[in-house]
Write a structure and sequence with these properties.
The chain is α+β, with helices and mostly antiparallel strands. It has one domain: Zincin-like. The chain has a three-stranded mixed β-sheet. A hairpin with a 4-residue loop joins strand 2 and strand 3. The longest helix is centred in the middle third of the chain and has 15 residues. Zinc ion (ZN) binds next to helix 3. The site of zinc ion has 3 residues, from helix 3.
Length: 129
Amino acid sequence: MRNLVILLALTLPACGAESYIDSAFIPYLEDFPAEVTVSIQFVDKIDNGATASCIHAEGAIVVSRLHWDHYSEVGKKALLWHELGHCVLDMRHTDDRESLMYFIVEYTSEDHLVSGSDELTKLFLETTH
Ligand SMILES: [Zn+2]
């Protein structure tokens, strides 16, 4: 999976497609259970104050560079998987606090996700611990 993601990041821009994954994100994507077909890029700031956002129309995830630096390793992975849940798996938010798709993603602490309650969260926990 890691090779695939790196290959995508390296070859898509060269082929004229606009998908581009910043190398900072690649280590957190290698276990993701689907092909990452969207761009993931840093922006200085997101208008609504969010840390990251999936822009469906552009097939892109944007991540606030300011917020990113304050996230733990697990938090960074959870953040990206949450947005990939939207952008790649077409998942919506849930009210379940233990779900990776809970609508407030504030995974600055590693013990936020204690027991996964959706498939994505279970996979996340399996690949994190
Ligand atoms: Zn979300």
